């Protein structure tokens, strides 16, 4: 199952797509990684879904990544005596600590951490930003506000705080239990929601201990303020544009998306662009022109992966949504302007042997018009470095570790193959040539570039570049 594109596709599984046959259809249509959203999935559903994905992986003989997306702290108002109220601009409205049902004048806010940390002048956004309040007085267990933008407010609607840094971490008790269950079921990636500070990543890393990749979802203004620190600490980021667009002015989100993609690439961290990419395909078999442009921009900018949410989880056309995303990505990567745009965002390698080898490999492969770049990678770091260079030639990552291979399924341009560690330099060259030939990347007479670390099998020690000929029997000579 060789993909004809470099950018990867994440598909969220849900009621419309959690059966094994549908998962296989989505994988054949182009899904590389499957997301399990713990906002909606129980532990039983998680276990069952992982088992089905692994069954499909075995049948297709193609690695599939699994992303367990933690819910994060959900902040909500309580209930109203009549189910809903209608707030009007200019009126006073209080959020307080009294558990009595809400009225037109007040409502219970079951989050003391909000009441304790909101300052006068801070904004409170309700129901995905549809209503906006401004704090005018804080104290005595209540926040007195003025309604800036009114509308209907009903039971259990969400509260967003774009101006307030909460002292609580991003990991709730539910998240902790879900995280342990995800690790128990060998999830490849754990996505942490509502990250505010670098310490949130450190807390999760202490629990994960390298058993999965940690993906930081960037969806709060507080995370933007400390973006570089967060990117350095995590293994990958997700540009979660939905919540980001609620708490920040919508017109700033495209620029932030570009900035995040470039910064993540500079630090060699895969970046996923998510939310509302093909939103209309929840109910329609074809997307809007604007949605196609939106997906195209993410691909042109060099994102590692693009994600489907409700489109594949609960929509009426999950397979069509993946197929559309696949076709758009292929068309963009075939565009005459694509290489120039990708090259313009190129980042300089760090002053390490592994980075220098990766940069040299891209240049050699393109100058000599090699058929492919083959990289031996134990931990995955060499494969990620090769992808960061965004070469025009295919990248084949070889690893004995299935966990590494599945984790690399979210990384741009990498075709992963599980193979035993080479026992000698000659075996290394032969193995690389045979796999490049068998996987359809090279023909007899072609040349490939091979990178590895010597001594062989040493994680993170890439220090060698070889050019090899693929012989008639598929083996190689250098």
From TrEMBL:
Q: What Pfam families has UniProt attached to this entry?
A: PK (PF00224), PK_C (PF02887)
Q: Which UniProt keywords apply?
A: ATP-binding, Glycolysis, Kinase, Magnesium, Metal-binding, Nucleotide-binding, Pyruvate, Transferase
* Residues in Pyruvate kinase C-terminal domain copies: 355-467
- Give the catalysed reaction(s), semicolon-separated: pyruvate + ATP = phosphoenolpyruvate + ADP + H(+)
Q: What is its EC number?
A: 2.7.1.40
Q: Name one GO molecular function term.
A: pyruvate kinase activity
The leader peptide range reads none
> What's the name of the protein?
Pyruvate kinase
């Amino acid at each position: 199952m060789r993909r004809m594109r470099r950018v990867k596709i994440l598909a969220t599984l849900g009621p419309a797509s959690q059966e094994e046959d549908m998962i296989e259809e989505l994988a054949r249509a182009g899904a590389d990684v499957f997301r399990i959203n713990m906002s909606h999935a129980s532990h039983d559903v998680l276990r069952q879904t992982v088992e089905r994905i692994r069954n499909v992986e075995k049948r297709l003989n193609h690695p599939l990544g699994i992303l367990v997306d933690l819910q994060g702290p959900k902040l909500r108002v309580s209930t109203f005596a009549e189910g809903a109220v209608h707030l009007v601009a200019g009126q006073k409205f209080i959020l307080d600590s009294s558990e009595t049902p809400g009225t037109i004048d007040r409502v219970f806010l079951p989050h003391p951490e909000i009441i304790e940390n909101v300052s006068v002048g801070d904004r409170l956004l309700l129901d995905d930003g549809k209503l906006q309040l401004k704090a005018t007085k804080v104290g005595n267990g209540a926040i007195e506000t003025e309604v800036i933008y009114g509308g209907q407010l009903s039971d259990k609607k969400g509260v967003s705080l774009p101006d307030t840094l909460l002292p609580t971490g991003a990991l709730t008790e539910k998240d902790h239990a879900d995280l342990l269950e995800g690790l128990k079921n060998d999830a490849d990636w754990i996505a942490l929601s509502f990250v505010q500070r670098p310490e949130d990543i450190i807390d999760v890393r202490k629990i994960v201990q390298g058993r999965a990749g940690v993906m930081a979802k960037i969806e709060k203004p507080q995370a933007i303020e400390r973006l570089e620190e967060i990117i350095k600490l995590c293994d990958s980021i997700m540009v979660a544009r939905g919540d980001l667009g609620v708490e920040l002015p919508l017109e700033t989100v495209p620029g932030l998306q570009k900035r995040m993609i470039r910064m993540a690439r500079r630090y060699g961290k895969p970046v996923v662009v998510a939310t509302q990419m093909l939103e209309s395909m929840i109910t329609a078999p074809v997307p809007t022109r604007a949605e196609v442009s939106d997906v195209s921009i993410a691909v042109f900018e060099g994102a590692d992966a693009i994600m489907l949410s409700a489109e594949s989880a609960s929509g009426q056309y999950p397979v069509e949504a993946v197929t559309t995303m696949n076709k758009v990505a292929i068309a963009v990567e075939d565009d005459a302007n694509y290489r120039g745009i990708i090259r313009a965002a190129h980042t300089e390698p760090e002053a390490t042997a592994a980075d220098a080898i990766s940069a040299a490999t891209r240049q050699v492969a393109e100058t000599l018009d090699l058929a492919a770049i083959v990289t031996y990678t134990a931990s995955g770091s060499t494969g990620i470095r090769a992808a960061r260079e965004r070469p025009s030639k295919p990248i084949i990552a070889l690893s004995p570790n299935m966990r590494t291979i599945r984790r690399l399924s979210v990384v741009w341009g990498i075709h992963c193959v599980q193979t035993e560690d080479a026992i000698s330099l000659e075996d290394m060259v032969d193995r690389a040539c045979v796999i490049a030939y068998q996987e359809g990347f090279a023909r007899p007479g072609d040349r490939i570039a091979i990178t590895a670390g010597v001594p062989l099998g040493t994680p993170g020690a890439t220090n060698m570049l070889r050019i090899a000929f693929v012989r008639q029997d598929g083996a190689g000579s250098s």
